[in-house]
């Protein structure tokens, strides 16, 4: 099938087209890029670009759409943002290797179940996406799942024999096409893995040139320095390139810590999303890991026991009020995103404090925040998700400072489970463009293309993706530069992005006029040993003034200005 996209401004990380172009797609690849009106239409299907930007398909470098990707509503939400590829297997917990049962249970409020995977490892997981979805999916080998397959629920250090088995599973997953290795060092059982174990698991990653991806230990924000020190130690010991997941902290701290990795000779990148608040399973921030590592039935029984509750209230919850990430106001900082128990359906979108007040009113008895949170967890068999505020919300200017860093890669950390989820799942990539380019003038359009597409494609080995070039795979997005924006918000998190109405995946229209076409050309993306290098393409220049919007400075210029002021 041939498609002719007419009258577009071609944009990728190498620059912005100097003139309007026609782009001919033949099969799954870009066949020709030429001045507008110069390409014979022949029998090609025509797509009217109407002067919009034609950008390479966006890559969500940190997604939890692993199991949700087969849902057409999820595909629509992603494509309306221009996302054509998601990278799952994040935070050390996902379906493969193993039978997927642990991830389905423990991450029920994050990833949910997977309708196409019942075992068979990374190869089977990736095969489940082939031709079954409109969006591509890559995966990381999740170190927590690997640990669970080998050591079960043990909190002890891995024995040499266990470590050898873990390394073999990591190597097998990489051979099957995984893009790297992920850890989730605030989740179980990954939290029980020490630095030596993690470095050993990262060694096979280094051997094949893949990436070690880490949800760092200790809650980020003020604790980020310790997490970065461990990442650096793992990189030095294993030789692996590293990538820090959802790196959110004060902008100056992010820059300083990334600079430290660079000075230490560590090849590092990070992803971040354009919002301040986080989102996770409720059990993670409010229950001890030594409890949540147990089977769900045992945890639920413990939480339902009055004596066990009294012990948690006396010994554990005071540590939450003293924590740097939450503190004494924690009941007002956690908003219920997903509650599996039907009897608490009314609680979606309420904070724990608000929910406790409402539960008290409904029952006619006094229920405090601790009891309410534990009641919801028991009733839902732990399947509860929460949006987590931070003590110091960052401004858009602060977020732009992080996201305009040259080592930044766009990732949503998007979770599609729940009636009141974090808006990042449906808004991040549209907000990258509207906030960073149009509103904050922190990036030009070519730099934005690098953030949302080309860096991830190169970093994770996604093959011939991430650029609008003849011969490249035609994962393509048409963007209205004046209209693109997110409509999802903390109050109304289900709104779809606007300003992106036409998207191709592997040369097949999957979004047309803002609606799904029903085509499913998506596939499981297997790691390519080396992504094609970006080089100058036809009709390209670096003049961002050729399209509507501000001409902006690069991140490095901001650093130079600060140094001059100092």
TrEMBL record:
InterPro entries: Amidohydro_3 (IPR013108), D-aminoacylase_insert_dom_sf (IPR023100), Metal-dep_hydrolase_composite (IPR011059), Metal_Hydrolase (IPR032466), Metallo-dep_Hydrolases_sf (IPR050378). SUPFAM superfamilies: Composite domain of metallo-dependent hydrolases (SSF51338), Metallo-dependent hydrolases (SSF51556). It comes from the Bacteria. The keyword Hydrolase applies. The keyword Zinc does not apply. Coiled coil: none annotated. Keywords: Hydrolase. GO terms for molecular function: N-acyl-D-amino-acid deacylase activity. Its EC number is 3.5.1.81. This is N-acyl-D-amino-acid deacylase. It comes from Agromyces hippuratus.
């Amino acid at each position: 099938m041939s498609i002719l996209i007419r009258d577009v401004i071609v944009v990728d990380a190498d620059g912005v087209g100097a003139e309007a172009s026609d782009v001919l797609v033949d099969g799954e690849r870009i066949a020709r890029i030429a001045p507008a009106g110069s390409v014979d239409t022949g029998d090609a299907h025509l797509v009217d670009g109407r002067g919009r930007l034609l950008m390479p398909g966006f890559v969500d470098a940190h997604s939890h759409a692993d199991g949700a990707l087969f849902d057409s509503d999820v595909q629509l939400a992603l494509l309306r943002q221009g996302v054509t590829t998601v990278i799952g297997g994040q935070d050390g917990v996902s379906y493969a290797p193993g039978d997927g049962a642990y991830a389905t249970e423990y991450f029920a409020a994050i990833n949910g179940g997977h309708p196409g995977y019942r075992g068979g490892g990374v190869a089977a997981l990736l095969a489940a996406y082939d031709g079954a979805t409109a969006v591509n999916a890559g995966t990381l080998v999740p170190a927590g799942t690997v640990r669970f397959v080998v050591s079960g629920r043990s909190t002890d250090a891995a024995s040499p024999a266990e470590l050898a088995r873990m390394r073999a599973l990591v190597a097998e997953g990489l051979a099957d096409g995984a893009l790297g290795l992920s850890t989730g060092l605030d989740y179980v059982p990954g939290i029980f893995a020490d630095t030596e174990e993690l470095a050993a698991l990262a060694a096979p990653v280094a051997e094949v040139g893949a990436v070690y991806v880490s949800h760092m230990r200790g809650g980020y924000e003020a604790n980020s320095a310790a997490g970065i020190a461990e990442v650096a130690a793992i990189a030095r010991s294993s030789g692996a390139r590293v990538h820090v997941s959802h790196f959110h902290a004060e902008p100056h701290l992010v820059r300083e810590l990334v600079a430290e990795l660079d000075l230490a000779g560590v090849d590092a990148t990070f992803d971040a999303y354009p919002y301040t608040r986080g989102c996770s399973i409720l059990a993670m921030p409010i229950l001890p890991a030594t409890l949540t590592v147990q089977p769900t039935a045992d945890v639920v029984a413990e939480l339902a026991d009055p004596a066990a509750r009294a012990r948690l209230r006396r010994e554990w919850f005071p540590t939450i009020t003293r924590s740097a990430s939450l503190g004494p106001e924690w009941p007002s900082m956690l908003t219920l995103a997903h509650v599996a128990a039907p009897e608490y359906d009314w609680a979606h979108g309420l904070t724990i404090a608000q929910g406790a007040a409402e539960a008290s009113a409904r029952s006619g008895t006094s229920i405090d925040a601790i009891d309410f949170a534990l009641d919801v967890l028991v009733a839902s068999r732990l399947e509860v998700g929460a949006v987590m505020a931070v003590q110091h919300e960052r401004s858009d200017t602060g977020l732009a400072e992080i996201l305009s860093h040259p080592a930044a890669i766009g990732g949503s950390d998007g979770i599609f489970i729940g009636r009141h989820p974090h808006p990042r799942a449906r808004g991040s990539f549209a907000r990258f463009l509207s906030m960073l380019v149009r509103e904050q003038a922190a990036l030009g359009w070519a730099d934005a293309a690098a953030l949302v597409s080309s860096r991830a494609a190169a970093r994770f080995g996604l093959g011939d993706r991430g650029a609008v070039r003849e011969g490249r795979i035609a994962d393509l997005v048409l963007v209205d530069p004046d209209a693109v924006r997110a409509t999802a918000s903390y109050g109304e998190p289900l709104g779809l992005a606007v300003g992106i109405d036409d998207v191709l995946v592997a040369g097949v229209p999957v979004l047309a006029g803002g609606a799904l076409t029903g085509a499913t050309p998506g596939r499981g993306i297997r790691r390519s040993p080396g992504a094609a290098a970006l080089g100058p393409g036809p009709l390209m220049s670096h003049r961002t003034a050729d399209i509507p919007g501000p001409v902006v400075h690069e991140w490095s210029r901001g650093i130079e200005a600060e140094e001059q002021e100092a």
